[in-house]
Design brief:
This protein has 315 residues and is mainly alpha-helical. It contains eleven helices and six strands.
């Protein structure tokens, strides 16, 4: 059982209807915001957001409470432009629900409160001062009196002959087949873009036209790959870099003469792979074998059986 004790305040009180306090669709924050606004003295210009700060209503709760009050017709807003070009938001708070037409009539009677700051001088245009002299049209033809002292244009740099040469080289089917098989040499080359195959085929055609064998091209590519675990993010660009320069052919085996680099080259494969050589025979993919001398073909291509089976060697 609950008991209630009520003493009428002698001063500073506001009367509210029970329907407002017990409104079923207004939250406690909305009722507190509305009653706080209605309890302000007449002529007070405190905004709803300032009331929410004083009533310790959070940002999310204030947004929800304001939306409920506007939906139920207790709060109405409109934006008007006052003197000096200032845009002002007028808020109307009522203790009874009002329609939009009723709120517009009441807001139309209210004076527009102008902020105390003066208007920007840019809003009030001054006297127009004409330019000196008669207006003249801009020049539309003719040439400068003399040439400029230097070339001020931004012409693109002339392409290098080594870069333009692959564009005119004849692409052979052997070059296309070799480029298509390059992704099988190493996992680093599996993501070569298909759009670069024609460009790489032109580069490989220059190698083949210079006398290099497909095995020499594959060996050159394998030597240029990083062997320290560094990932290759652009395999197509790496192949373009490796195949751009065509070195001279050394001897009759079609191997390339690698000039001494200015910087340390890639580390040779350690251990057992350093002694292997790629077979120059007819294989579907590159095949490595351990040579006993200067032979360039594996035991399978020579026709003799391999005495020891090694996974790194050809089957």
């Amino acid at each position: 059982m609950i008991y209630r004790h009520h003493i009428a305040p002698p001063r500073a009180f506001t009367q509210f209807s029970h329907e407002l306090i017990r409104h079923p669709r207004l939250s406690s924050d909305a009722v507190r915001l509305l009653t706080w606004q209605l309890s302000l003295p007449e002529g007070a210009r405190e905004s709803l957001s300032r009331t929410a700060e004083r009533a310790r209503i959070g940002a999310c709760a204030f947004t929800r409470a304001k939306r409920q009050l506007k939906e139920e017709g207790f709060v109405h807003e409109r934006r008007v432009q006052g003197p000096g070009g200032h845009w002002i938001t007028q808020q109307l708070v009522s203790n009874v629900p009002l329609s939009a037409a009723e709120a517009a009539k009441l807001l139309g009677r209210m004076p527009v409160h102008v902020p105390g700051t003066p208007a920007s001088p840019q809003l009030a245009p001054g006297a127009r001062v004409p330019a000196v002299g008669a207006p003249t049209p801009p020049p539309t033809d003719g040439h400068p009196e003399k040439d400029p002292g230097g070339n001020t244009s931004h012409r693109p740099a002339e392409p290098d002959a080594a870069v333009t040469a692959p564009e005119t080289a004849e692409v052979t089917e052997a070059a296309r087949a070799l480029v298509a098989a390059l992704p099988r040499l190493s996992p680093d080359l599996r993501r070569v873009p298909l759009g670069m195959h024609d460009e790489l085929a032109r580069l490989v055609s220059r190698w083949l036209a210079a006398g290099h064998t497909p095995a020499a091209v594959r060996t050159h590519v394998l030597r240029g790959l990083p062997d320290d675990g560094t990932p290759v993010h652009r395999p197509g660009g790496l192949l373009r870099y490796l195949l751009r320069e065509v070195p001279p052919v050394s001897g009759t085996d079609g191997t390339a003469v690698t000039p001494a680099p200015d910087r340390p080259g890639p580390v040779r494969p350690p251990g057992r792979l350093a002694a292997l050589r790629e077979c120059e025979g007819d294989h579907v993919q590159a095949t490595l074998f351990r040579p006993a001398g200067d032979e360039t073909l594996c035991r399978r291509c020579l026709g003799s059986p391999a005495p020891v089976r090694d996974p790194a060697l050809c089957p």
